[in-house]
Amino acid sequence: MESLGLDIGGANTKYATNTGKFGVIYHPLWKGDVFDVLVRISEEHPHEKVGVVMTGELADAFRSRSEGVLHIAKVCMEVFDDVLFLSVDGSLHCFEDLIKEPLKFAASNWVASAIFVGHHYQDCIFADMGSTTTDIIPIVGGVPVAGKTDLERLMNRELVYTGFLRTNVATIISAVEINGKEIPLSKEYFATTGDVYSLLGLTEDIDYPWETADGRGKDIMSCAKRLARVVCSDLDEISLEDVVEIAHQIRDAQISEVSEAMRVKADECGVCKVVGAGVGEEILKDASAMAGLSFVSVSAKYGALSSVFPSYALSLMVD
């Protein structure tokens, strides 16, 4: 019988088994409860034990993070029989423990991955770029040394709120240059990083769900039309080549932001290596190079499990 790791986020629920089966289900918590998603996973993957980490408590469907943790945990208990929850201190707990101190279980998915990586690499930065955020976790002597809350990690540059698919491009760069002229971006939700990386050919081999800003297609021309809108334009006013150049500039700006966080943490902790995972692993590789750090690819060893690495690491912890 398999063990199962669940990573319940605000937009995606990710799962993996200790035998390497995995998946990502797009299900925004602000649009509905995760119960049916968990039932589906439970039925498709018979299991003996279940481990749960979460970040979905931050979704604005909940009035507080504590409410979110408790709600997600209760739904898990309704669906699964033998459930353990990972706290931010790296230990597994039963539901009764979670009820007493729910915030110890908030924003806990990075912990599973960092503990796993720490067993294999004594001194490094573990970086994981998902669809929405990027974790930059220092590991010293095999032990993760990051803050215990999202707020602490934001302040410490261990959480960079930028991702590979869902980030509004206007939050990454304020202006772009076209034909030698600087053009400010409209601060509107016209396009996301999913459009950028689709247009640049970086999503072709990635089976990962994302929702476009306008609800339309993910083909090259649809992505280009959305990106043209960020400079209040259409493809009959600027060329496809211009839009591709916009995409490159957004990509470069995102890489620079992530690279700077890597450099700061590497200098603080005296490490020179990044172990990178997640759907945005290619961006992490480029960011590491910019920061002058060597790079170890999780996908090189574990394949597409890299995109659900917290789930996989957790499935091994509860095995």
Q: In CATH's first tier, which class of the domain at 2-109 and 307-317 applies?
A: Alpha Beta
Secondary structural class: alpha/beta
Shape: globular
Mean pLDDT equals 97
The rounded Rg comes to 20 Å
Characterise this structure.
With 319 residues, the protein is α/β, with parallel strands linked by helices. It has a domain at 2-109 and 307-317: Nucleotidyltransferase, domain 5 (2-Layer Sandwich), CATH 3.30.420. The chain is built from 11 helices and 14 strands. It has helices spanning 35-44, 65-79, 95-100, 109-120, 150-156, 193-199, 220-229, 240-269, 281-290, 298-302, 309-317; strands at 2-8, 12-17, 22-26, 47-54, 83-86, 92-93, 124-129, 134-140, 143-144, 159-160, 175-178, 181-184, 273-277, 294-297. The strands form 3 sheets. The chain has a 6-stranded mixed sheet with strand order 3-2-1-4-5-6, sandwiched between helices. Strand 2 and strand 3 (22-26) form a beta hairpin. Helix 4 crosses helix 11. The termini are close together. The mean pLDDT is 97.
